[in-house]
Amino acid sequence: MKKRFIMPDLSAATHWINQKIGREQLLGAPALIHFWSIHCSKCKKSFPVVASIREKYKGRLNVVAVHMPLSSADLDVRDVAQTAAQYALTEPMLIDNTHQIADQFSNRFVPAYYLFAPDGHLIEYHMGERGVYRIAKTIDALFHL
Question: How many domains is the chain built from?
Fold first, then answer.
């Protein structure tokens, strides 16, 4: 993925939780889009860090979660909603049961974190267990320049 990658359209979500949101609502402020799955333990460990980023930059940073199923066991929207509530994921959540959004991002991993500039261009992305800490440092630098 190239750094000048532009945020894809998000309308391919099969379901939404908390709030229906699209690309156009995210432009104008930096946006963090994070991919996760209900059976991903590394994703669940990252949720408190994502929540702290969301709260720290509330009103200045858009945060969106994308649930990307890893198997057929991850397709139940009620299970996704229950897990989201259990971990206090209050940001808009797109459920990508067809992997159309993941395909637009060329994403095959969870957790994965994509930070976009207000104009929709990719600033940085990280994947894996430590990715949330790396993206948090970039977000801190973005707002403290």
Answer: 1
